[in-house]
Write a sequence for this structure.
């Protein structure tokens, strides 16, 4: 418990819903936050297939669930189940944080805030004016894109193997001057980028991204929103291309969790201790958030 925390014996129930989700670090992170703030919580990882998500969330709420995190592959489906959504969730078309309010789910998305906080505060990377490449257009990409634009990047180029999904994300962002989509086949000819973000799930299936080193600008930062072994292929590609600044998604995971925790409890936890603890075990971590 931190020096300023006071003990609260009311049990609060939270969970993370995903498929698969067994390796999720969210229970560990949130329990750490709770101890720091003197709160008593139960936080579980619940594996649920996409078709069963509505019933699983209903059962969780009936059992007293107060809030939930949502991870792959449910972020867009959970968006549709919300009675109310924050502005940042509405802009992204996906949610990663649910709060039970008057018998209904209210949705938010803390991914983008978590990424921006990690990049700007922990890594001291100034996002203003950056030309940014976003690989992927699923729930993870949708969660971070609005926050990147709000942080002042100059251009967001969205590329996805299914181009219609990239087009849909660019459309929902509603900022054609700064955010637009391009075809995957054009990646070798669209110039270099100051910030390269992998939001695809290619590493989860053991796949590789066939990318040109011409994408990497001098002093660029390469970020994989996954962490652990799944982030290795993209970050190894970036290193081979001469990119000296590279980061996985562990910092974003911790920061978005802190944002969710603050929404649920009204208390903003410190993140450095748990980030340092997890970073020391990075080689053995499995992405599940």
């Amino acid at each position: 418990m931190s020096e300023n925390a006071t003990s609260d014996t009311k049990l609060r129930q939270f969970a993370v819903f995903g498929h698969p989700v067994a390796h999720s670090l969210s229970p560990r992170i949130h329990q750490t936050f709770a101890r720091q703030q003197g709160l008593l919580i139960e936080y579980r990882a619940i594996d649920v297939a996409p078709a069963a998500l509505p019933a699983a969330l209903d059962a969780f709420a009936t059992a007293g669930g107060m809030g939930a995190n949502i991870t792959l592959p449910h972020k867009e489906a959970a968006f549709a189940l919300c009675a109310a959504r924050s502005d940042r969730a509405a802009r992204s078309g996906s949610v990663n944080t649910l709060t039970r309010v008057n018998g209904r789910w209210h949705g938010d998305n803390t991914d983008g805030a978590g990424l921006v906080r990690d990049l700007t505060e922990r890594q001291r990377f100034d996002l203003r004016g950056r030309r940014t490449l976003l690989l992927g257009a699923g729930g993870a990409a949708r969660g971070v894109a609005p926050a990147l634009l709000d942080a002042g990047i100059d251009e967001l180029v969205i590329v996805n193997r299914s181009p219609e999904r990239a087009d849909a994300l660019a459309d929902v962002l509603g900022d054609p001057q700064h955010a637009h989509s391009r075809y995957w086949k054009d990646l070798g000819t669209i110039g270099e980028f100051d910030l390269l973000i992998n939001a695809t799930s290619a590493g989860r299936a053991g796949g590789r991204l066939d990318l040109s080193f011409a994408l990497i600008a001098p002093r660029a930062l390469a970020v994989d929103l996954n962490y652990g072994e799944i982030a290795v292929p993209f970050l190894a590609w970036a290193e081979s291309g001469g990119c000296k600044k590279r980061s996985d998604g562990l910092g974003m995971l911790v920061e978005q969790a802190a944002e969710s925790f603050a929404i649920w409890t009204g208390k903003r936890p410190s993140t450095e201790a748990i980030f340092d603890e997890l970073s020391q075990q990075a080689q053995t971590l499995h992405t599940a958030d």
User: Anything to note?
Assistant: Residues 1-5 have pLDDT under 50 and may be disordered.
